[in-house]
């Protein structure tokens, strides 16, 4: 099984996606695919039977607004991503209750991959994360120490990690540091041969995991 999540930030034809699906079994939708492809496109992509579809809207609002957004999209996604800095009461408490009732997952952003992110807020975000008790977390692959910290603090949670390829992290390193999945976008969809590159990335990741011998658990 590949430990890759395709960041679908571009509208790719369904026949290409069907072939990519042979190597990559999870996909992340974003504002870009929603705006460029529309709900009809996302509905067709959803039907390709991924192991997990994650809708990445980086929610950061009061509870009722976030719940209205996710309820409008609940048939198109298995999980959603929200920022954690928005806090618990009046925001993540009700969102988490709503998503659990709908049998949907929630991933909280704990550390981002870009240079300007400030990890000194982590103790604050960690406290919120403990209260929310979500399915998992987003932690940038460009921040290996943060992946190790979050893995140590939350041994049972799923860590999904962007920043691989275009943003500089090497394929497989985030997994070796304790993540469960690597999120990869441009390296795949910007290539002229997305299917071949998907297979190549999958094989590189497997080789790296074998080398570091840190096979992630199947956390639910
Ligand atoms: P790419 O492999 O093209 O850099 O794409 C990374 C994906 O992960 C994008 O969808 C981006 O929005 C997302 N992402 C990120 O790059 N850094 C973060 O800290 C959090 C993200 O969700």
From TrEMBL:
InterPro entries noted in UniProt: Aldolase_TIM, OMPdecase, OMPdecase_AS, OMPdeCOase_dom, RibuloseP-bd_barrel
Pathway as given in its UniProt record: Pyrimidine metabolism; UMP biosynthesis via de novo pathway; UMP from orotate: step 2/2
Active-site residue numbers: 56 (for ompdecase activity), 58 (for ompdecase activity), 61 (for ompdecase activity)
SUPFAM superfamilies per the UniProt record, alphabetical: Ribulose-phoshate binding barrel
Short name of one Pfam family: OMPdecase
BP GO terms, sorted: 'de novo' pyrimidine nucleobase biosynthetic process; 'de novo' UMP biosynthetic process
UniProt-listed SMART domains: OMPdecase
GO CC, alphabetical: cytosol
Binding site for substrate: 28, 113, 185-186
Keyword Transmembrane helix included in the entry's annotation: no
Gene Ontology MF, one: orotidine-5'-phosphate decarboxylase activity
UniProt keyword terms in alphabetical order: Decarboxylase, Lyase, Pyrimidine biosynthesis
EC number: 4.1.1.23
Limits of the Orotidine 5'-phosphate decarboxylase domain: 3-201
Protein name: Orotidine 5'-phosphate decarboxylase
Originating organism: Stygiolobus caldivivus
